[in-house]
Amino acid sequence: MTRSESSPDRIFLEAALLRELAATWHEIAQSRFPRALQAPVVALSDSPHRLGCWHRLHRTVSIARELVFQQPWGVVREVLKHEIAHQYVDEVLRIHDETAHGPAFARVCREHGIDATAAGLPARSGGSPGGQNPVLRQRDAYLRQRYPRSSARSAGTILRTQAYEHGKKAGRQVELHRPITADAAPLRMLPAQRP
């Protein structure tokens, strides 16, 4: 999809992605920096040179639109963590006399398990099996558990488990017409399952 496409579906998809980015910001901020940060504005950018950016003057975290549409969500999360680390150095530590990826930023990233790389896609964890990012491994394990395959040979055949049918039914009920406000609750993509 290109930026010039402005169909209602594209607009609703981008609105849903922004809500999900905001919800993900809250989840990461609370787990990595409990009660330390105030929610910023979350935006999509068209910058061809940056995956993400923390803008101090406007209190905005922007994530590249191309990244959100073309990379797995785990990669988007890693870029968002990186930008949240910039926000933390700026707003909590109040360090403004170092370069953006200076010693304070590197220390915060190291202490909180965040990729401090300044360019390119987030680094894959060198010590993990197969070199895969731990977030992506966790996502893949969750998907394998939730949607088991009938066998290794027929990897394209998903068993139609109760969870699969529940997700399929819920997918038809997702409503993207909710207003976007700063205090809006994140959109629940799947209703909670009953035991």
Describe the 3D structure.
By secondary structure, the protein is mainly alpha-helical. It has a domain of 124 residues: Metalloproteases ("zincins"), catalytic domain (Zincin-like, 2-Layer Sandwich). Helices cover 43% and strands 7% of the residues. The chain has 6 helices and 3 strands. It has a 3-stranded mixed sheet. Strand 2 and strand 3 form a beta hairpin. Helix 1 packs across helix 3 and helix 3 crosses helix 4. About 9% of the residues have low confidence.
Task: Write the CATH architecture name of the domain at 8-131.
Answer: 2-Layer Sandwich
Please write the string of helix (H) and strand (E) elements: HEEEHHHHH
Shape: globular
Q: Write down the CATH topology of the domain at 8-131.
A: Zincin-like
Query: Radius of gyration in whole Å, from Cα?
Result: 19 Å
Strand element count: 3
Identify the CATH class of the domain at 8-131: Alpha Beta
Low-pLDDT runs of 5+ residues are: 124-131, 174-182
Can you give the mean pLDDT? 75
CATH superfamily of the domain at 8-131: Metalloproteases ("zincins"), catalytic domain
Structure class? mainly alpha
Number of helices: 6
Main sheet attributes: strand count, strand direction, barrel closure: 3 strands, mixed
Terminal-residue CA separation = 39 Å
Task: Note the beta-strand portion.
Answer: 5-15%
Spatial ordering of strands, largest sheet: 1-3-2
Percent helix range: 40-55%
